[in-house]
Fold these 2 entries.
Entry 1:
Amino acid sequence: MKKCFYLETFGCQMNVVDSERIVSLLGDIGYQQVDEAEQADLVLLNTCSVRDKAERKVYGHLGRFKPLKDARPELIIGVGGCVAEQEGQKMLDEVPYLDLVFGTHNVHRLPELVQQAEEGNRRLSLTGFLDRETRLNLFPQRSELDTVTRFVTVMQGCDNFCTYCIVPHVRGREVSRPSHEIIAEVEALVAQGVREVTLLGQNVNSYGNKEEGEINFAQLVRKVAAVEGLSRLRFTTSHPKDLSDELIACFAELENLCHQLHLPVQAGSNRILQLMNRGYTREDYLQTVAKLKKACPEIRLSTDIIVGFPGETEEEFAQTLDLVADVGYADAFTFLYSRRTGTEAAALEDKTGARIKQQRFERLLELQQERSQQIWQSDLGATLTLLVEGESKQGKGQLFGRTTWNRIVNFAGPSELIGQLVDVKITKVFRNSNLGELVS
Ligand code: 5AD
Ligand code: SF4
């Protein structure tokens, strides 16, 4: 009988891609994925530590598996990802029924750990960063998914050290993959039926900057866009300080580059931006936005914002509100500042009370939701082009695709349309998705 594993993934797309890798690696050693932990011989959590809430969730989830372990002591329980990287052995000390801990640079060694655990060698922890060469040799991150859209990692890690952020501490320094490997991977994916790729990295805009003789990100985007058969291209995440004019020009020139960009601003006040070590001013950011809108008038932007950074005053917060109103984001992901041990900001004095922070958070949310709704409602009645991704959860004969703005639209249509670009008239706009009718 095949052995079974259950995997839960938290956090960003990096973790999603790492989880695809985990599925593939475990398949190689005879494990099959199941939807219920109760049926599994191996239970894994791929974790996120970007905010305290995400981290606490991990411990909460592990607690859920304790009764399973009590009933079946042979069950193997493992934790990977950013919390694993950060906590390492400490997690084993704190959670007596945990068997394996594997950090962000050690996903490739999971099969080895699992086999050891099968043989009775438990309570193993593997963390710490690999050198650049070893990391680059671990690509491409093969997976056998049968999907229309895919993420392709172009760089890993981060050198920016925003003062609030744990990522550089748990994912290591920036490395960029050779561009010829990335192009070859995109070509192979397209040959296999993929129609849209999202180039992925913690800060894709600094792609290639540290590698001698490598092309820059704008050049990479052009090369990927030119891969024959690729209907659409996106990239994430962009750091505003590294978004070049050359890259902005791509939005005007490349037909298959989607008119959507995630451009985290984090705060609207220059003093806070500086304390965050973001490397740009409010004015720089607004100028970049103006350039983007000029190059591509229909572009829709999304952002990340942190509310309640240590010492943020009411006036400084009001500058964030003002910037949000000014830019007109289609979506914004808003977060309450969360103190992360090991980051620079953790040492800053923070006198603002939790209640005030919460009120600010709600004010921002209200403003943003109003803005988002205005923008998305304006699509009602419009005919938009979708890349059809698959059958929708709504039922038989229902498909779903995405607009250039990455908005999900559900509509009725035959499954032969999967993988194709089709025109759909928008008939209903919900909070997070739309309903449409195929235009023949
Ligand atoms: N507290 C709150 N939000 C954070 N983010 C990163 N670190 C923190 C933190 N310590 C947010 C940023 C980032 C997004 C992925 O998470 O807005 O862009
Ligand atoms: Fe974190 Fe800043 Fe790097 Fe983004 S750019 S991962 S926020 S340190």
Entry 2:
Amino acid sequence: MAAIFNINAQDKSYLDKKKPIEERINILMKQMTLEEKVGQMNQYNGFWDVTGPAPTGGSAEEKYKNIKKGLVGSMLSVRGVKEVKAVQKIAVEETRLGIPLIIGFDVIHGYKTLSPIPLAESSSWDMKAIEKSAEVAASEAAASGINWTFGPMMDISRDARWGRVMEGAGEDPYLGAQVAVARVKGFQGDNTFRSPLRIAATAKHFAAYGFVDAGLEYSASEVNRNILYNQVLPPFKAAVDTGIRSIMTSFNTIDGIPATANQMLLRETLKNKWGFNGFVVSDWASVREMIYWGYSPDEKSAAKSAVEAGTDMDMEGGIFVPHLVSLVQNGQVKESLVDDAVRRILRVKFELGLFDDPYRFLDEKREKEVIGSKANRDAVLDMAKKSIVLLKNEKQLLPLKKEGQKILLLGDLAASKNSPLGSWRIASDNNTAVSVLEGMQKYKGNSLKYEKGIALTQEEPTFLTEVQYNTTNREGLEAAKQAAKDADVIVMVLGEHGFSSGEARSRTQIDLPGLQQEFLEEIYKINPNIVLVLNNGRPLAISWAAEHIPAIVEAWQLGTETGNAVAQVLFGDYNPSGKLTMSFPRNVGQIPIYYNHYSTGRFTNKDGNVFWSHYSDVDKTPLYPFGYGLSYSKFEYSAPKVNKKTFAKGEKVEVTVTVKNTGIYAGKEVVQLYVKDDFASVVRPVKELKGFEMVDLQPNESKTLTFSLGEKELGFYNQDGKFVVEPGTFKIMIGGNSADVQELTIELL
Ligand code: GLC
């Protein structure tokens, strides 16, 4: 038995590793007081110097005292072996039962060594690379004492005004589910947590947070059941089926009920229907915020509604500890609900091995070895290269020649070592990215000149400040214009600062902010040979650039190895293979815009009149569609074929297609398969992604791919949440993006 527990429990056999976890939970819970049970449901944000003397005064002192009373089950934002050990020691050695804390943190796209923002990663369509990226993040977090991450975020969204689109995997539930599974496997491994470098993951935000009204952060999401079942929930269901250990509730309402108190979502769907056996943590103070929504009249009601709905842990809300005990004692909340919540939380703590050794994640030597290792940097570089999407490449500007060229690099962002880290990098250190300038300087065969040009922002933003873009100061423009005169090619890095997207970063405009559009046009007038490299956390409305600029590279915020990834793509050492996972609108007025939309009763102006579904000012199609991305290669597709045109329920159909690389570079192509249910009991989208495969082809090489279609690919959730497959014809479409496809029809009898 672990000797470190200073516990007064009569029956210490819950520490016996040989016993099954459920039995160990029972033995422990039998000895817990109601206060201690509620304590497990309480999570605090650590914000005092836990390695220093005990805090005095204010909430820090109250938190410290509550830990010693066994009234805290988890901490977030305490990180680093020294810090975590200090706070874990209090829980394990100074409380009656010595129940270890579970230590959570936002490890969203890396811990210290940062991967690309998740939206960028999803553009790789490379599940192995995405899994590896999460594994690297888990290893560094675990080596720092963290055993639970608040990720992956898997909110489907079609609204680039919302800042948190950077945190997800785009607009499609099928791809979103695959990315979710890859990330859960990267964080949790095989779910045994035998390795001290794996951590529990959290599927967030449950649910429909990505559908906030008008992209306005923290507002309502009133989605209907069709959207909920067919668009929003599939990634969460896939994560639960992969064994994810926790779920985080979302800030928004559904059906006018805050998600944190939404029985339909938490108790009925997640716990009862899906059989989820981990625990549900609220989002930050979202239990308390039910009062501000005008849903709970007071704290007691908020505590009651949340725990009855199925929220098991109160993150930094300070609601469960003061009220749940009396609610149970007065018979207003069943103790069985508290027991269920505590059982779930203890289960994950036992699974993480925290009862076998509460200090197993706390090895200072391992912390030094793992964090920032070369292997980790290589992994995030690989991820970054694969996340880059080539949007346009005319005049064969790309790849850049490796010698004999006069290259001018322009833009504040080109030299930034901070912005490319993205917004969810709170464990990392500022200014630790390889900048594009640094990456390009490694290619010595050309003359490379750099000019900052017009400043992007008034001052360097931080995680806590609004980004103030420069809209008045044109200093640097003249020098850039002069330098542009005799350059053979100009690389301009423009876009958003890394803190322009992420939580609480909604925008009503999604064009190039500040004076960047003016900067781009001024340089274009002098020298049109421009390669535009975008740094952004959301789709941007870049119609002018799309029309005028010969080469455009979508480089998101790529994390620690940004500059090396961008340079290797620009110089052709990596042939870009990314494909967009969110539609790029022509302008913000088109939002929400997404590929898997419904048809309409008036999709053409066959009568030549105005009474059809269109805008009078722009084409209603996206600027760049879902699944779109070019390569330095060219790929040709054969017409797809099927092994049978009609099939019966339960049968599968095999679809084959041959893809040939007709270019001069070896390259990867993400072959995409879409399905349309022609007629159904509810209208179905004009197409839905139901399969994809990446092929790696040498010049002139062909490969034939086979996709297997069955009920899983052809069915949908009806209004009652039941998965149904209805007979009739289906269109099968295959191509290199959602717009350029070849189709055929099959029929389910
Ligand atoms: C934030 C976010 C959530 C995060 C949590 C802890 O408000 O909504 O995604 O995990 O609080 O930082």
